[in-house]
Amino acid sequence: MPTYAKRMQGLVTAYRAASRPWPASTEQLASWAVREGKWLPPTAILIKQCARDFGEAMRQESFTDAQGRTVRAKYPATLPRGGAQTSLWDDVRTASRPFMVVHFAQRRQRVAADCRKMKVDLDSYNENRNPGPSIQISFNFERDIEEGEMDAAASPLRRLPSRLCRLPCDLRTPPRAELLRPRLPPLGPAQFPQFNRRLVLLPLRL
Fold first, then answer.
1. What is the domain range of residue 15?
2. Does the residue 45 lie in any domain?
3. Please, what's the b/e burial string for 82-120 (b: 16 or more CB within 10 A of its CB; e: otherwise)?
4. pLDDT band for position 38 (50/70/90)?
5. Is 52 within the bounds of a domain?
6. Do 163 and 119 fall within a single domain?
7. Tens digits of per-residue pLDDT, 79-116?
8. Residue 206 sits in the same domain as residue 143
9. What's residue 155's pLDDT?
10. CA 140, CA 144: separation in Å to the nearest integer?
């Protein structure tokens, strides 16, 4: 039985035999093959794509809890199934406590892994490429979380957007990475010398 790659190579030959434009881009080849019914995605590819779509849809689903907070509805946890590790999804409104314990533990591990990678990148830059003072970043997020909770409680209008620009922090702030607040004035190039070049941490998407 020919391999998938051999089948695709055979389609290229058929494309040229049909007197189609040549040289051709892969998009041209794909358009011809699909239009002529000569290529259908393998079942495994369809299943993987469908699974990704399910995961993205469940990741985006949210609801308002009893305290008025917008929270996720569906959560994944990697658990042993049939001798292998499998990512299973459950609804927080029906999930068992052990399932949620596993989810939050694994989610925290991903945050920690991202911080470790950031620390390696930061140290490498400071030691090998940074022409100025060493960039210092705090990995203690307790104050950031507290301030975020206070902002959310004060007014929903002050909640930060999910996409923030990386901008310098005011010199008057404590020596740590802070979330940029909307009340800060916009910064122009002429103002940059007045600020310390510490990075602003972005929320992690998990």
1. 4-35
2. no
3. eeeeeeeebeeeebeeebeebbeebeeeeeeeeeeeeee
4. very high
5. no
6. no
7. 999 999 999 999 999 999 999 999 999 999 999 999 99
8. yes
9. 56
10. 8
The rounded percent of the chain whose pLDDT value lies above 70 is: 74
Is residue 182 in a domain?
A: yes
Region of 186 (left: φ > 0; alpha: ψ -120 to 50; beta: rest) is beta
**How many folded domains does the chain comprise?**
3
Select from 52, 53, 56, 64 the least CA-distant residue to 93. 64
The answer to whether residue 51 sits within a structural domain is: no
Which residues share a beta bridge with 91?
74
- pTM of model > 0.90: no
Shared-domain flag, residues 121 and 153:
no
What is the identity of the amino acid at 177? A
* Pairwise CA distance, residues 16 & 186, whole Å: 57
